[in-house]
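FOLDING PROBLEM:
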Amino acid sequence: MNRIFWVLLFLSFGLFLGISLSFIETNHDRRPGIEWLGNPRSITHFQLESEGGTFDKQSLKGQWTIALFGFLHCPDVCPTSLSELARVSERLREMPTKDPVAFVFVSVDPERDSYSEVAQYARFFDANILGVTGSARNLKSFANDLGVQFKVNPGEKNYTVAHSVTFSIVDPNGALSGRFRPGFDLDTLVKDFTNRQADFL
C-alpha cells in the first residue's frame, strides 16, 4: 500500500476525533467570525505547484480565494480545519454568489508532501479544494504575505511542523482581505462573507 493510503487512514481517525469534539463544543466557546482588514494587503510574487500546473499571484485574481496552510502528517488540527473548509465550500455552492470562490490547501512540508499527494489529500475532504505546495522560499513568501507562520522542526524521520491555523481570504484583486479561525459559526460566517462579496467593487 502506498504512503498516501496510510496518511488518509490516519487523517480519517483525526477527522473522526475532531468531529466528535465539535459536538461537545458550546456556543460560548465558538470563535468570532471574519476579521476584515481595513486596508487589504498586497501579495508579492510567489510560485507554487498543483496537479493543474503553476499556482501563483495571477491565480488569485478574478475570484475570491480562501486558503489554509498545513501538512499531510498533521495528526488532528489539519483534518479538522479541512473539514470546516469543506463545510464552507459546500454551503457557498448552495448560494447564489457574485463571484466564484476558490479553496486552497497549502502544504508547508514539501520534503515529504508532493503536489500530487497534497491534491489527493485535499480532495478527500472536498473535490473543490485545490492542493498546492512548492519550495520553502516560495512557501515562506506566500505565508508571510498572508500573515501565516510556520516552522519545520527537522531531526527525526517523523518530524513535526508548527504552523498557524488560520483561514486567509484573498479578494478578486489578489490582496489579503480578511481571515478567520476554526470554530466559527457557519451561518454567521457565510452571511458575512457573501455580504462582503456583494459590496466588493
In short: The first strand starts at residue 35 and ends at 42.
